[in-house]
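Re-run requested by the PI after the first attempt was lost when the workstation crashed. Everything re-entered from the original request form. Ligand of interest: heme C.
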Amino acid sequence: MPASSFRGRCFAAGLTAAAIAVLAAPAAAQSADETDAVTYHRDIAPILERSCQNCHRPESVAPMPLLTYEDVRPWARSIKYRTGRVGKPDVMPPWYIEKDVGIQDYKGDISLSAEEIALIGAWVDDGAPRGEPVDRPAVTRVVDASGWQIGEPDLVVKSPEIEVPATAPDWWGPMGESETGLTEDRYVAAVEMREVSTWEGPAERDTIGGLYVIHHLVVLPVGPDGRPVEEAGFWPVHEVGRNPDVFHPDAGKLLKAGSKILFPSAHLHSNGRHTRAQLEMGFKFHPEGYEPSRTVEIIGPATVELDIRPMEADQEFEAFSTLMEHTKMMVY
Ligand code: HEC
């Protein structure tokens, strides 16, 4: 929701003058009663819909759902605290781009504005009132638990299924391979990877999240000759919480007819329940006959040796890589 769609009301004494100037303008038209209370239905629910529910819903990464007032109310104080942790590693929503330096205009920006953080704080301090459901603005974003963020894929490739006991040490190793079944060469426009898991029995122990067991999985498409498609370079890696990769319209990565996908390196982490899991890779293709005019490169910083000294805070390690030509960074 753009900041401009907030209805103004005098909710917080602690706001800066600038923020009050932005928010207070439309309030003149409203009565004192209407302007006083920040309510769940009118003010808070739309923020949670946009910025929290993708994770805070059943079957997603966060530990508790924030879909209804009943879900949200017990967490009110914690929500005020965590949304106020701007610039700290535990800020909610997780969003670490500084607000006062560099590019600010990002697609899918779920971060909260200073006004929204103040609004949540004021609501919690006021006892987190529910308000009237009729005041609720139209739903801005519908979360579909099973939906692909890239839209219905043209091809879904599933990894072999793996089993992880409820309590087990972490495990690293290869996870097999899967045929793509492709009968023609196609350029990939977007790829999304997600873990699909089922459980047996109750949880044996408490974990944070406790939904996924594949911490990360390296994917490597190879042609019918068993060799990586040279010009395609590295592929994105599956990691918990990673967003899909949507390539630039002028660029795509080649998936060969008769190719298969190797899963050479997995890190598995037991989640407290006996879990069977597999990775689904959803591919969206460019149209048939498409030829890219640019290349996609996955660039990582050079590796660095970590030599962490004991009992010493604030140790930093830096790694650099040089961009050798004019480059547009699409995903970070
Ligand atoms: C990208 C996924 C994601 C988004 C988006 C997100 N959260 Fe979270 N949230 C998590 C995860 C994972 C945890 C558990 C780990 C932790 O506590 O940091 C968590 C923990 C929390 C906690 C602490 C729960 C506790 O046990 O104390 C609160 C409160 C919270 N989130 C509120 C929010 C609110 C409010 C929003 C939106 C404004 C939000 N989160 C958006 C993933 C997310």
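Saved to the shared folder this time. Residues 1-33 have pLDDT under 50 and may be disordered.
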